[in-house]
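Sequence in, structure out.
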Amino acid sequence: MSTSAKTQDLGSLLKDAALFKQQGYINGQWVAASDGATFPLHNPATGAKLADMPHMPRSQVTEAIDAAKAAFPAWAALTAYQRQAYLLKLFKEMEDHNEDLAIILCTENGKPLAESRGEIAYGASFLNWNAAEALRTYGQTIPSPYPGTRNTVIKQPIGVCALITPWNFPNAMITRKMAPALAAGCTVVIKAPAETPLSALAMSVLSERVGIPAGVVNIVLMDKGEREAAAGLELCENTKVSKISFTGSTPVGRLLMKQSSGTLKKLSFELGGNAAFIIFEDADLDLAVNGIIASKFRAAGQTCVCANRIFVHSKVYDEFASRLVDRVKQFKIGNGMDDGVNIGPLVSQRGVEKVERHVEDAVSLGAKVLLGGKRIDNGDGSCFFEPTVLADVPRQCAVADEETFGPLAPLFRFDDEDDVIERANTSEVGLAAYFFTQNLARTNRVAERLEVGMVAVNTGVIAQACVPFGGVKQSGFGREGGPSGIDEFMIEKLITIGGL
């Protein structure tokens, strides 16, 4: 991003300016980098500088881990009802400060304010859900084949958990990991993303206010580069960390898994996606267009479950393309804080460059630009790209194999159900898929054949706190949310008693 001379006073936009923090949070203390190093944070919609953030060295990550380890015994010893009470208080704080949290998110990430409000509500739902799940960590008694013997299985918190979160959902990816960890009785070290650290820090302010003890929640942050790599290595190699929960790219997931092998940590990874979105000939086209708008263009296309490959049956291809273009033309692009804006910037110039590369590659191979196709250069370091629809996209192009993470909707033709399922399943990742049909038999048949962890039928929305979220193949393993989400932060212990 351009090093703009402009600055923005984010605190002045907030009712509660104390939510705007420019320090890390370790052992209940707000701290700068131990050597005073900082890095600049910019607003992707304006290029204005928001803050100078601590650029922490590896030694402070170790300090945060030590604090979490020291706080773990007392936090784990609380009853599930006591931990539930903390989570419900934190949920209430999020509700009371939802507008300020949304403004912070909109400003650092770029997504429109209305969409940011939706993320805050979604993020809060994980606190509410896991507050209840804290009371459902049931064990079991298993009959023994040996006389006078009783087998009891109990669940216990796994220990210190490292939570590595992405920038595309700065609030919800914190709460989706932190809420089950705290409910289970674990303490956490959160490595906040360099692009969007302010939302994570605001949640620490609220955690402190509800009385969550020092050391239970810790936040470390640093810019991209050597210090971020060193932080990841410390979280992987430190024997005091029992669990790593990571959301991010598949290559980084592979690296973290390799680095964690020496300490055999429990891992849960939500990695890359390359979602297929299939529109069969009998689909309700208006419903399908609505699904694309929700899935493809939410967060300007920067979501892991974003529709990346849109397959449209030849019989409805032209009609669907026309309807989609008409809807996308209605988008208002701009600063998410401005009224009526529903498409904000990408989070960085690197993201803009990737979308640009995918468009140029597809066009060079014969694709046609129906709408958009260019970056928007305001000369201020902002990161906008036009919402784009491509038609006649060939099979052999970058967007068919790579996750775009931007507002690009490529339309591929298909004629045969078996063929489109095979094409959908060629991806090495398998996070989510979507399809639209009014045929009940096809609904069950296709849903079972798609090689993904989540399937949406006749809707573009998947994520909810009450359902498991995760993928298969190289999209990772483990689940977040739903009844099984809290199990990722617990261990089963067998207690066998003889002589009864």
